[in-house]
């Protein structure tokens, strides 16, 4: 039985299990799904238990010359992708709260230095953004017009913010977080992420935290927040030639 909610399990099983199974063994499963969107016409999900699931459209399956009863593995599948000029975007870690951790979160009291931000905070938020590097702004994707935005303050200055938006027409809310460099390491990010996640849970959403595999600081934050690794997710690169 999974430690994660059924909402999370169902969301990820839908694209990877709905379709024609081309190959399946104890480690690797490959499925053809005609309902995939163009920007997700091939995806790979490796769960924290080590299972690898891949899914692609019938058109791509034809280009890769895939057919049933073919002996496949993750490595041979990736070789076929490379040979066909299909490039995958760098993998993201996917983190979620386990049901047990979510229950602890819902019982936690919010810090008084934290609050939800609204459009009335435009000037405060603009000052916050102007104090961050372009790279940090791009990596974090924290926006005031997202579905929910929370901020942490120090001496009335916004120093850390997290925002969320519903992801993939589901009850999952994807989040980003940014803390200004001089204020990192003080617990601001952990508090603001837990606060916005509690809000999302109370609204019936499952918080989702994604980060690149090489972003060690972000991975450490996910664990400090109480999130658990669900898996690694790859999707076709926007720059892919096929």
Automatic annotation (TrEMBL):
Chain ranges of the N-acetyltransferase domain: 112-242
Coiled-coil regions listed in the entry: none
Domain of life: Bacteria
Pfam families, sorted: GNAT_acetyltran
MF (Gene Ontology): acyltransferase activity, transferring groups other than amino-acyl groups
The protein's name in its UniProt record: GNAT family N-acetyltransferase
Taxonomic lineage of the native organism: Bacteria, Bacillati, Bacillota, Bacilli, Bacillales
């Amino acid at each position: 039985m999974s430690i994660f909610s059924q909402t999370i399990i169902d969301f990820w099983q839908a694209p990877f299990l709905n379709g024609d199974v081309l190959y399946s063994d104890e480690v690797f499963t490959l499925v053809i799904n005609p309902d995939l969107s163009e920007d997700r016409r091939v995806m790979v999900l490796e769960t924290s238990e080590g299972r690898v699931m891949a899914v692609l459209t019938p058109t791509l399956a034809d280009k890769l010359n895939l057919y049933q009863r073919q002996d496949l593995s993750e490595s041979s599948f990736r070789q076929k992708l490379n040979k066909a000029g299909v490039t995958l975007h760098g993998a993201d870690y996917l983190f979620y709260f386990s049901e047990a951790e979510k229950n602890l979160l819902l019982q936690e009291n919010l810090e008084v230095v934290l609050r939800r931000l609204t459009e009335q905070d435009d000037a405060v938020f603009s000052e916050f953004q102007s104090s961050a590097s372009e790279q940090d702004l791009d990596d974090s994707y924290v926006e005031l017009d997202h579905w929910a935005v929370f901020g942490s303050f120090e001496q009335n200055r916004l120093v850390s913010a997290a925002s969320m938006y519903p992801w993939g027409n589901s009850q999952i809310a994807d989040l980003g977080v940014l803390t200004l460099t001089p204020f990192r390491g003080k617990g601001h990010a952990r508090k603001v992420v837990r606060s916005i996640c509690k809000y999302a849970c109370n609204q019936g959403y499952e918080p989702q935290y994604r980060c690149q595999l090489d972003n060690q600081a972000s991975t450490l934050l996910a664990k400090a927040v109480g999130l658990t690794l669900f898996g690694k997710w790859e999707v076709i690169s926007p720059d892919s030639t096929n």
